[in-house]
Design goal:
The chain is an alpha+beta fold. The protein has helices at residues 2-26, 100-114, 129-155; strands spanning 28-35, 42-50, 54-74, 76-85, 90-92, 120-125. It folds into two domains: 1-27 and 129-155; 28-127, no CATH class. It has a six-stranded antiparallel sheet with strand order 5-4-3-2-1-6.
Amino acid sequence: MLRRALIHLVMMAGVLAFAGLFILLFGNSLDVSCIRLPGQNAVCTFSKALLGQIPVSTRTVADVVDVEKDRSCDGDCSYRALLVTSSGQKVPANEVFTDQGPVLKQMAEIRTFLDGTTSTYGYRQDVPWWVVFLSGGLGLMGLVLVGISFVTGLRKPQISE
């Protein structure tokens, strides 16, 4: 009985860890802010926040001079914008690949900023709440199923050898 309870507790912990990992990886908002001082190249700061509230990471890319489109094709193609520095380094504006339309729009906005029309650029990608709800819901469903498995196992007659 104790062994069975421990096995089910470990299964529950695994379900919670799996759901939590998905929320941690995919439940982030992204804020990109760029500034360009007169006579200098742009500096962009990327900030991620878990569920849009808890700061997870911040990174800064200096000397941004251009933007390019990155493409990944595995059957269908998906895209993301890459910031290009004066040294030729290419840094993704977003870790996630998506459809071409939003990427082209983002690239046009960044190009307008880099061409000198404005001195600041900001972009915010909100938390994809559907991922949070899906992961959380699947985690809860997994917990319920493990609980049902435990309870139905208690009702079965135990065969002793």
